[in-house]
Structure prediction request, 74 residues.
Amino acid sequence: MARRSAPPHSGPAYYSAPTRKIADPNESAFSEFMREQIWAPEKLPGNVNIVAGLAVFFGGIFAMRTWGELMVPA
Prediction:
């Protein structure tokens, strides 16, 4: 069977050209991080999944510490 590959000199398929970013010289590093990593539309679904997982994890710890004695037979 013939091998299917990209045309010669096309470069690696996993590399994307760098995107042009709009830089505000008065923006702090923290606000740039929040804008590019937390509130970016392409990263928001993953961030929501992380927050939901942490909420379930810590909610389970809170529930077991609060009502854990109710699970032990008397």
